[in-house]
Amino acid sequence: MRIPRLREKTLICVTILAIQCHLALCSKILVVLPSPGYSQHILTESFILALSTRGHNVTVISAYAMKASSNVRNIVVDFTTYDIGPDGLFKLRHLDLFTNIRILHNMGLNFTEQLLANHQVQKLIHSEEKFDLVAVETFFNEAHHAFAKHFNAHQVLLHSMGILEWNSHMVANPNLPSYLPTTFTGYTTKMNFKERFRNTIALWLDHFYKFYVHYPAHQKLVDRYFPAKYNLEELVYNSSLMLSCSHLGSTEPQPLTSAVIEVGGMHIVNKILPEDLKKLLDSAEEGVIFFSLGSNAKSSTLSKELIGTIATSIGKLNQKVLWTFDDDHIKNAPANLKISKWFPQVDILAHSNTVLFVSHCGMGSTTEAIHFGVPVICMPIYGDQFMNSRRLSLFGMGLELPWESITGDAFGESIRHVLNDSRFKENAKKRSEIFRDRPTKPLDLAVYWIDYVLRHNGARHLRNSIYELKWYQLYSIDVILVLVFAFACCVFALFATVNCVAARGKKIKTE
Predict the structure, then answer these.
(1) Of 215, 359, 367, 504, whose Cβ has the fewest other Cβ atoms within 10 Å?
(2) Averaged pLDDT of the chain
(3) In the beta sheet, which residues pair with residue 32?
């Protein structure tokens, strides 16, 4: 009689498991991408397609339409670029910390409202549609956290740059300014006293602006664009977990809570190069140098003199150079230079003849260079790029080249220095091995954790008790103040006793 019962129990278990898997595979997911930058879209595209392949029905709100898929629906938002002047991002690197913090928060606020005001987005909000999970990319867009509350769905956060002061509090991840650098300082985890002091001030400035200026503005957007009234503070802390496009091989080791899953490199999927590019790279006996400043900074906004200086330096190189340039031509372009408004960056970096990457050091580009073991000339422009640049230098695979130092043949000399010093290539390969050595592919890991949240009804058990602590409790400021007060009382009592004894002795002596 035991064998039939055993079979019956096994059948029940298998049936329950099958039902759970079916429910997970048939979930409706809303993905909100608030940035007009194409680089942010690239980092999530493979992830979204993987979700649809697993059977999830995915609705994507983004500046760019996803590739055709039967399980993906696109809501395309036509963002108006935030006006920061004719020089674009290039001028922002000269501004002070507080000004940069203010500009970036205002930029995020602007993009947040543009997305919410979109007709199709408003139509979705006021529809009877339901979602099981909402995935929101974090970019100073806290009002978008209302989507999950509005649709009564679980919320997962996505972030292209890793854990920063922008988002660490959202998943109760401690942010220690003595160890973790804030974005605009450009520091790594190795800081001296002066750097730690400046880093702490930067964190305080960011927190002040965030909680007393930025959040009230986003609360107004929530009140304006959603039919129900929601408290922004509750929305911000309503996430199950965060998928972070970081890894100890591409950033640095840092303390992470159970609600932060590192999936750096999940977007890297090799494809076949177009025939003309494949022929060019295959025939490059001296190698190919790839030059790109990302999708947000425009090379054409550089001064004509600087473009001419760079082009002249390129003409003196033996390698072929591919430059992502958002204009049709460059005056007096050398024969070894090929420009285009777009190149398949991942596939170029994957080619064995690519010997060097000249990059702005955005997180996506930094991750790809490390993944393929390609040395980097680092030319950061804005935000986390300075921090990424310093990390590449720290890894021994990158050389920093400030824009202000590009005079004469400095551009070409820096390139020749990196190519002629074998240590840059060796260190790049070592870093690539560290980055790739994982038990699970990052894309599979990202999809697994989405299913995990769905299987466990929001996975609230991943949240820690830091949510319940005030900032002064988290960093034991109240305990330190009590100890200082107690010590001060002891010192005061000691001095009072000494003075009393001395006064009494003096009185006895005079008598």
Answers:
(1) 504
(2) 88
(3) 61, 136
